[in-house]
Amino acid sequence: MQVIRAAGYRRMPWKNGGGETIEIAVAPAGATLAAFDWRVSMARVDSDGPFSLFPGIDRTLAILEGDGLRLAIDGRTPVTLTPDSEPCSFQGDVAVTAARIGRAVTDLNVMTRRGQFQHRLRRVRIDGSLELAISAPTALLLCHAGGLRIEARPDAIQLQSLETLRVDERCGSLRIASAGPAVVFLIEISALHTGKSPRARPADRQSDAAACACSVKVAQLSRRHAMRRPVALITTVLVAALALAGTNVRAGASIPKVIAAAVADPARPEADRARDADRKPAECVAFAGLKRGEHVVDLIPGGGYFTRIFSAVVGPKGHVFAVAPPRRAQAPADAPDPAAPVQAIAADPHYNNVSVSVERVTQLTLPEKVDLIWTSQNYHDIHNVPDVDVGAFNKAVFAALRPGGIFIVLDHAAEAGSGFRDTSTLHRIDAEAVKNEVLAAGFVFAGESDVVRNPADTHKLKIFDPALHDKTDRFILKFRKPK
Questions:
Q1: Number of structural domains the chain divides into
Q2: Does 247 map to a domain?
Q3: Boundary-marking domain end, from 113, 147, 169
Q4: Domain final residue, candidates 67, 91, 113
Q5: Cα–Cα distance for residue pair 406/408, rounded to 1 Å
Q6: How many Å apart are CA 88 and CA 72, to the nearest integer?
């Protein structure tokens, strides 16, 4: 067991000379900025300006103190990073300029050498006790607010605000308890032994408290940086497997453990998790039948709500193709790039099985045939795109699937018998009209689910009505490409 106090940290000037960094940990020990494998540090940002370039390095930033930063990242939509936002990942050899939102900022910075190591940075909220899954052989737990007790052998570890616990052996999980609300940052670092990371996903993790006779390193940090902020609470859902035979599936069906774990993954943004009660992602993905190792297309993925879940479900041997539409030619210059949210997801090492393509929906130039194509709350809008032949779209989906592959359409329901009348006004569509269109492309109907049905929806309001946010009557249809 090693204990490193604040006096043992290295205070170093920024590579560009614009500030000072407090190095929490580095490997190999004592490595220079040009030679480290991985590095965890804090930095105080007192002025605006460019970040130092770190060729061949993957970086993730989170705000510890201050109002936040506006990051201009070359080739990406600008990012606003605040104490309430998810950590931001980007490549160290890309030009990044930071502008403070208000007062000086202290950030947490994790860096790993691309192709040799990978990392994951996430926040966790604890209020009581929690079994915190750890998949990597090296983990650092930074207590950001509140106090923690970590069960470890031979003695329990007590952490106060901005003290860090370092675990240097794979232990599966840590049992953590707090006397009140506490906030922590968990940093996981692992070496890459092959060209593609054997990344462990939540469903792959083996909890073994007895294995936590791990080496630990406690690092006392200066308390002047302490602050309070909310983060994610890990939940573990253990349920029976679901076998779908292509018939109607109703709410209350069992959820496979791999899907339950993907939805419970604390790496998902808090804003996404807040929508789960209404969107029912576990039930929807279970109905689709997505499995470990499969290749899936998230067609018109929006903010990536399902993209992240798909990534965790299919795991390191699977792949997620996020297919986003191009920016409209008539769109205002400041209109958001439709691909930007999923490009940010694909840049996060935690989602290294996600790739992004930007193309018209009728083309689908994928590098391979896939197992499942999913489109959520978009099918009605395909009818609204000028010069798009919906029949050609469905045939493109059919061609992109392997024999036996699945096409899922989840959309806002319109009045029965209304056909395509409301696609551009209420942004709804009649489920039976969708069935007829898709079947015409050569698919066979494989089932439907009522898990996101809402009989209280009158089908007379626009889906954007605040009273209907995530509460519209929605249908899910499953189609199969014949073998």
A1: 3
A2: no
A3: 113
A4: 113
A5: 6
A6: 12
CATH code at position 341 = 3.40.50.150
Cα–Cα distance, 238 to 234 (Å, whole number): 13
Same structural domain, 102 and 126: no
Which residue(s) pair with 118 in the sheet?
Answer: 190
> What is the DSSP pairing of strand 474-480 with strand 401-412?
antiparallel
Domain of 133, CATH number, reads 2.60.120.10
User: Is residue 94 a part of any domain in this protein?
Assistant: yes
Instruction: Per residue of the chain (483 residues), give pLDDT as tens.
Output: 364 566 666 787 776 666 678 888 899 988 888 899 999 998 888 888 898 899 999 999 999 889 999 999 988 888 899 988 888 888 999 999 999 998 888 999 999 998 889 888 888 888 888 877 776 789 888 888 788 888 876 678 887 777 888 888 777 677 888 888 888 888 989 887 543 333 333 333 333 333 333 334 444 443 333 333 333 333 333 233 333 333 454 444 579 999 999 999 989 999 999 999 999 999 999 999 999 999 999 999 999 999 999 999 999 999 999 999 888 777 777 778 888 999 999 999 899 999 999 988 777 888 899 999 999 999 999 998 877 889 989 999 999 999 999 999 999 999 988 899 999 999 999 999 999 999 999 999 999 998 999 988 999 999 998 888 888 999 999 999 998
CB 263 within 8 A of CB 282: yes
Among 259, 371, 239, 245, CA closest to 310 = 259
Is 77 in the same domain as 102? Answer: yes
**Same-domain pairing of 104 and 128:** no
Q: Which residues contact 422 (CB under 8 A, 6 or more apart)?
A: 380, 414, 415, 428, 429, 459
- Based on the domain organization, do 262 and 127 belong to the same domain? no
Owning domain of residue 218: 121-225
Note whether residue 83 is domain-resident. Answer: yes
The reply to whether 172 and 296 lie within a common domain is no
Asked if residue 95 and residue 159 are part of one domain, the reply reads: no
Amino acid at 97: T
SS3 106: strand
Chain centre to alpha carbon of residue 193: 24
Residue 81 lies in a domain: yes
What is the reported pTM? 0.53
CA quadruple 228, 234, 235, 238: dihedral, nearest 10: -170
Is residue 50 within 8 A of residue 16, CB to CB? The reply is yes
